[in-house]
Amino acid sequence: MGSTTISAVRTASRRRFLMCRPTYFAVEYAINPWMDPTRPVDPMLAIEQWEALRGVLLGLGHVVNLIDPVPVLPDMVFAANGATVLDGRALVSAFRHPQRAPESGAYEKWFRDRGYEVRCAERWNEGEGDHLAVAGVVLAGHGFRTAASSHAETADYLGRPVIGLTLVDPRFYHLDTALAVLDDEQIMYWPGAFSPASRRRLHSLFPHALRVEEHDAVQFGLNLISDGHHVLLPAPARSLAARLATEGYQPLALDVSELAKAGGGPKCCVLQLDRPPA
């Protein structure tokens, strides 16, 4: 987890992702500060933006699996929240808000049908939205959508140490809006999203982590997808893209403005599965 320079050589790792087409995307309720049901949404533009994201991932050589959207679940496009997957095990989410709770059944069926070992979380646990694997541990956000009391179950089932991090700014209601994993060792985060104790914990574990400014964080700049070299992030996070380039990453800007109306960015749209064979 050492410091980086522009001369750093970054290596992409082929990934497998699960995505859900936003066929029924809408903002019909408000369960985070970004959602405003009175604000117009263009469903066709949302689909175009999602297809562009999927196209970039495929173009980079990644594998994209699809789960069928369900008509009454407009937020199902945010597949990252459906489960946390490690080593062939899927811990299916237990959503805090009733509007999203039925998604769990769809994700459970998808994983069981494909031979994954599956457990359904017993306490609030919103999947990879609040659980990011890096450096042999799972960083786990809590405070808004995932319960701290769920961490023991996560550690037990996934077989990794879980490091709890308290989120304190409701704009950053999931960990993946406040912290990003760039490669197997490096993370990037906005300190203001975390409690003082959690900031100290992050600094202790990742002393050379990249810290971003609030103006990039509120553009969902941290809700990014990285394969260790290419970094897909929202187009408005321009200064963050420039920063990543100086660190040896290749930023790829995407327009996800319609999906952002529901509080999501590129990372929210993908759930990382087991990596495919080389």
UniProtKB/TrEMBL annotation:
InterPro entries: DDAH-like (IPR033199)
Entry keyword Phosphoprotein: no
Signal peptide range: none
Keywords (A to Z) from UniProt: Hydrolase
Annotated family: Belongs to the DDAH family.
UniProt-recorded name of the protein: Amidinotransferase
Phylogenetic lineage: Bacteria, Bacillati, Actinomycetota, Actinomycetes, Kitasatosporales
